[in-house]
Here is the input.
Amino acid sequence: MWRPGQGALVDAGFTVLLVGLALLGFRTDFAGTSWVLPAAAGLLLGLVTTHVTTARRLPLVAPLAVVTVLYFLLGGPLAVRRDLVGGVLPSGQTLLDLADTSVHGWKRLVTLLPPVDTGSGLLALPLLVGLLGGCVTYAVARRWSGPYAVLPAPLALLALGIGLGTLEPASLPAQGAVFAVLAIGWMVARAARSRAPLQNGAGQRTRYGIGAGLVGIALVAGYLAGPLLGGSAPTTRLVARSHVVPPIDVAAFPSPLAGFRRYTEPNPAELWDTPLLEVEGLPAGTPLRFATLDSYDGAVWGASERANTGTVVPGAAFQQVGESISTRGPGRRLEVKVSVPQGGYGDVWLPTAGTVAGVEFGGSRAATLSSRLWLNIDTNTALVPDRLEPGDSYTFTAYVPPTQAKMPRSLAIRSSSLTNEVDTSFLDAKLDAFSGDAADPWAQFAAIAKVMSGEGAYTDGGTKNSVERYYLPGHSIGRLSRFVGLAQLAGNDEQYAATLALMGNRIGVPTRVVMGAITPGSGPVRGRDVHAWVEVRDGQGTWLPVLTDNFLPDRNKKPKELQTKVEDRKVGALVPPPAGVNPPSVLQGPDQAQNATNLKKPPKKLFDPASWPWWLRWLVFYVLLPLLVLTALYWLVRGLKAWRRRRHASRGPTASRVAWAWADLMASARSYGHRPPTRATRLEQARSLHGPVDTLPLARRADAHVFGPGEPTDEDAAGYFRATDEVRGDLRSQADLWRRLRSDVDVRPLFARTTR
Here is the structure.
C-alpha cells in the first residue's frame, strides 16, 4: 500500500524532472544558487505528501492542506531564515512574513531589481511553487489515468517561471527542447499503460522506438530548419517585469538642485558650517552623489523616469532593490559607512558614490528604509521616499574609480542630446563667443568651461542690501537667460552646472548634472562641501565627471556692482524667487506639477486595510477570507452537481438518461470510499457494492431500460433518477462526517461518463 508501484515511480520521476525544469526559471531572479534548496525541498516534500495521502485514498484537498502546513512550518529555516525561535522553529513574525510573501511576494519579485538577494524573504516563493507544483502534478498523475491530464500543471509552472523571470532566459535548451521531449515521453508512457500490448507485448519496444525516433527527427529538423523558415521572431522575451510599472513617481520629489542655496552662506537654513553626514571609507576628494539629474524641462534639472541603456527592465528607470545589487563598475570595491547627525541631511535622495553594489541600513528605521529603497542603475541615483532623518545610518558597497580632477585633453564623443524637447536657442549667442575656433565638440565644451571659470563671477546671494541680492536662485529658462545675458556670468554651482549641461547638449555633447558633495579629507561632510557638477558621456557610453574646479570661478570673485545697476534695464526685470517648496524633479503639465508638490498623506479610511491594526488584517485576510473562499467553493461544487443531475434528468433520450444516472451513482459511490470497477458491467459493479447497499435491482432495471425492447418513458427515467437518489442517500447515511465532506467536494462525479 505504501510502496509505490512501477507506474507510480515513473510518474514521480517525470514529475521531478518537469517541475524541476519549470523551477529553473527562478535562476535569473535570485543571486547565486540560493533558490535551489527551498525549490528542491518544496518539490520533494510535495511529492512525498501526495504519495502518502493518495495511498490513504484521501481527497485532493488533503495534500493541499498538508503542504500549506509544511510551508508555514519549514518556510522559516528554508526561506525566511530570520526571527526564528532557536534558529529552527517559526515565530509569529516568521508566519506573518510567510503569509505576506505568499500574497504580495509575487509583485515584489517583479518590481525588485534582479537578481534578488537572500535577505529579501522572497525565497519563500520557490519553496511555495515547488510544494504546490510537486503536489498538484503528481496528484493529477495518480488520480487521473488519461495521458494528457498531467501536462497542464507543468506547463502552467513553466509559464509562471518564465513570466516571473528576466529578459535573460534561464536555459533555452532545458526549458525548451528537454521539457518538450520529457512531456511527450510521459504522455507516451501513460498511454501505453491503458493500451493492450501487441502480440503479447512483442511489439511494445518497437512502438517505443518508433516514438523516440519521431521525436528525435522532429527536434533535429526544428533545430536545423527553424532558423531558415520565413517570418520574424520577437527580439525580446515577454516577461512580467516589462509590463509592470513600479509604484514610484519620481516627479513627486523635489529636484535637489533647486534647493542648492540652502547649503551656501549666508542662507536661512544655516547649513554652510553644519555637519550634514558622517562618512567613513571614501578617499578624500571623492564625489558623493546625492542625485544624478538627466532631464531638463525648462524649469529644473531633475531625475528622469526614462530608462537609459543597460536597464534590466525596459521603461523602468527606478527599480526597487534589496541589500545586495548585482552590478559591477570600474574602480575599487569599497564599503562606505554613512550616518546622519542631529540637524544634518534630510532628503529622499540617498547619498552614494561610484557604482552601487549594495545598501544595508541600520538604526531604528532600518526595516522601513530597506523595504522602500529605489535605485536607477543607469545613473546610480538612490531614493528612499521616507527620507533620511537624524539617527539614520547605512552602509553601501560600491565600485569607486579614482577621481579625475582635470578634464581630459581629448575625448571621443558620440553626438546626441538629452534636452531635445526644450528650446535652448537662447544659448546660441554665448556658445559662439565661448567656444571660439574650437573644431570638435569636446574642444568646444572644454573652451566653454574655461571661459566660465576664467571670466565668470561667483555669488551666493549675499547679505541684505548687498549687490549679490540681485542674483536670485533657480535655473529655469528665464533665470538662465538672464545668467548668460549679462556681460559677466554671475551665479553659483546651480547656474553654472545647469548652463554648462545645456550648452554641452546644445553642441552635441551628452551632458547631465550631478548634485552632491566632495568628501573632505577629515571630519564630517558640511554644507560648504556640497557642489553641483556635470557628467559627459563618451563614445563608449561611459559617463565621465567634470568637477567644479574645471568650470566654476573662484568663490571670492564677486560680480561688479556697475553691471548690476546698468544692465538691469537691458536684460529686463528679475525673475521672481521660487516658491517655498522646491519644484518637482520632472514637471508633467501644469496641473500635475502643482499636485506633485503636495506630499501629504491621505486621511485614513475605515475600509482601508492599511489603517487597520495588524491583528485585524490577520483575522480578515488569513482567517475569515480563506474560510469564506472555502465555503464558497464547497457550495459551488455541490451546486454544480445538483444542477448537472437536474439537467441530465430532463434532456436527451430517456435510455441515455437512465445510463447517465447509473454512472453518476457509481461516481458518487467512489467519492464515499467504495471502489466499483470502472470497466465492468452494471451487474458486476452492483455486486461490488452488495455490502453497503443492495444495488442489484437498480442495475437490472437500468439494463432493462437501456437494452430492452422499446424506449423507456419520461416517467420511467424520472422514477429511476429518484431511485438512484435514494441509494445515494443510503450511502451518505452510512458514511462518517469526514467522508461526507470529502464526497461533497469531490469533483469526480462532475466528469462521470455515460456508458450504454
